[in-house]
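Researcher: Dear colleague, please comment on this protein.
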Amino acid sequence: MTKAGVASRTAGTHPPAKADAAAWLAVFAGSLGAFMATLDISIVNSALPTIQGEIGASGTEGTWIATSYLVAEIIIIPLSAWLERVLGLRTLLLIATVLFTAFSMVCGLSTNLTMMIIGRAGQGITGGALIPTAMTIIATRLPPHQQPIGTAMFGVTAILGPVLGPLIGGWLTESISWHYAFFLNLPVGILLVTLLMLGLPHQKARLGDLLRADWLGIAGLALGLGGLTVVLEEGQREQWFQSSEIIQLTAVTILGFGLLFAGQFLSERPVIRLRLLLDRQFGSVALMGVVIGMVIYGTSYLIPQFLAAIANYNALQAGKVVLLSGIPSLILLPFTPLLIRHVDIRIAVAAGLAILAVSCWIDTTLTAQSTGGAFVESQLLRGTGTILAFVFLNQAAVSSVASKYAADAAGIFNAARNIGGSLALAAIATLQDQRNWLHTRRIEETFNANSVDVQSYLAGLAQALGSPDAALRLVARTMQRDALVMTYNDLFWLLAVGILAVMPLVLFLRPLPKGVSLAAGH
């Protein structure tokens, strides 16, 4: 096996003193793979109303198009370190890329919700391996003094993916067809396979490790995280524990987490080392990662939905608004390595979280007349806060534990971010129904049908519209619209409160080591 091959298998192995062209090709391939995988998380958001209509899915069912991807990705990310040891880095990435592209074609050809969910889940399972392994490539193929550049590339692609997704998906939907939001992955997949073949050496597979795998933990991850997300997603619609389905899924979730914890004690090498969460710094990093994931994926879902429902924006127009948060990322990109070296992590993360909280707070004053312009200030702030918090926390995740556990640490952190996204989408589906019902009832209570003013207003409206029934329908639509606006304000308020709640955890962070370099991680 080549030295590079050995390095890629061993967390903490020293990378070469000077990166050659092949190394940079590998780094670019890793970043491109991570970008493709994160892009597809949100590429359906702005096109979701169109997709739902064409495949016959309701609004609630449509959230599964986004959630199924995240659920599958959450499960595979912590497994990436183990899969890399078994298959070798290049083989794993080649398999993941080819299958990701194939499942993208399944999504693009979907004619019903079941086919779409299968394709999206397949995308998540395979795309999940492309995100964390990008960090391994950076750590093992670049020298320490160049690793902050690789970190910046990875951080920005991970942030820009969810931001560019709605824009690209919206443009393709409006200009060609939503199917091409998935067909787009075919040329990208071919390019990625070529780069991986040129930039990474082949390593011999260790299939014998399959027999020594933590199968309890693997089964526990799938059952626990999958079951939890389904319970959160379907709970409101099924009336929670009044439904036998929710009770059964809750039991599956508990069983899954039980198996995962059992694997921590019974397996020589657990699939995911939950003990790392007991470390004060790493546990804080993981929890803040969950909240950042909620903000990144939650807002990239909420904003297109608001603009479509309230401002009658099409997919492309909504995507342009979401893209605004990517502008600060592009501006800060050249300075990110310097920030990592010279700015105290506690200051950077605290500033990032504070800016994120303010950005969400600004969006709590939306009205029925709000358009994309109402989101300009908040989106620019959101992009700035996200890159400050995410890039530093990503570095802290692998710097806060021993180098031999760096792969596990990075896997947990990336999974935490996606768990946050999954929780956000599930919570939005639940809270949107609850708060919309509540606000509708409150508006109805203030609308006294026996009031002289109300009667005069309805009479004038009926005269203008030519029909009392038309007047009543218009009033009902107006009430529903206002209730929905108030619901969106509530959701942004909850995101702001969630960010503020984890801000004190910044005090548990320790300064990054001088001359910081990445540990090999997932």
